[in-house]
Amino acid sequence: MYLFDRRYNTGNFGNGLVFVETVVVSVLGIVSGFVLFPSEASLIAIFLIAFGQARTVEVLLDRNRDEIWNGFKTPAQANFRLAASLLTMFMGILASYAVAALVVSGDAVLHLFGRQVGDYGGHSITEVVFDDFTGILGHNLVVLVICFVFALVYRHGGMLLVLAWNASVWGVVFPYVARTAPDLSPGGPAVYFAKSFICIFPHLSLEAAAYTLAAMAAVFLSKAVQKYDVGSERFTRVGASVLRISALSLVLLVVACAVEAFVAPALIHALF
């Protein structure tokens, strides 16, 4: 998305710019997917969003590299800053899809986001069945591995595809449930969605952070294999960072699974 290059080139940009750009790219991707490929708009939009954000992720990765190797920040500080920017991107995509799913007509929702909606429509949030901790952990570990492999092979392109897809699903499903649920509250779909989001946001944010860190670790490893000799000082430093980030990703995923298994059902019971 080269329209924002001038602001990024100053080096003094924050996550507010990342969020705004992500929303613009997401809206353009959704609209372009519908106009150009209406029969597969729900999938094409994801690829367009990933393409549109590829340049931004390159800028973020370059900033991370310069901060670490030039000594501007410690690796932990630089990696935390990168993770925060990628999570901001995730939330920008999710917010764009959520608003779109709330404001477009009912028929358009299915046409635009059919792949994301799946068979969730027409159900109450209270009917959502959460698996037990072991089942949730097993499923989410598979997703984590997919994130790592995609980012390892396709680097930031693979990372963006996985993050954009997950953000779009989370962004569409609960607004659509809010619009079709048989037990709508007096406040209508917007209030129903807000209450639903309160219930799922704790584990959603933890899962998103875990997947983002796994993708970051894979990109770092892929770049290290290409640029440095195995066993060299720089490769060892990158490898140690990859292990630390991967370990943190696993910890966050385990916590997210526990929150989803125990906290989310309790919140739904309390609010609905």
Brief sketch in words of this structure:
The protein has 272 residues and is mainly alpha-helical. It has eight helices and no strands.
Describe the structure.
The chain is an all-alpha fold and 272 residues long. It has one domain (2-271). It is built from 8 helices and no strands. α2 (15-36) packs across α4 and α6 packs across α7 (188-227).
Low-confidence parts, pLDDT < 50 over ≥5 residues?
none
Provide the gyration radius in Å: 19 Å
Helix content: over 70%
Assign the structural class, choosing from mainly alpha, mainly beta, alpha/beta, alpha+beta, or little secondary structure.
mainly alpha
Which oligomeric form is depicted?
single chain
Task: List the helices and strands in order.
Answer: HHHHHHHH
Give the biggest beta sheet. Answer: none
The residue-averaged pLDDT reads: 90
Distance between the termini: 41 Å
Percent of sequence in beta strands: under 5%
User: What is the count of distinct domains?
Assistant: 1
* Number of E-state strands: 0
Overall 3D shape: globular
**Helical segment count:** 8
Explain the layout of strands and helices:
Elements: H1 5-9, H2 15-36, H3 41-69, H4 75-103, H5 106-117, H6 133-180, H7 188-227, H8 233-271
Question: Key features?
Answer:
globular; mainly alpha; 272 residues
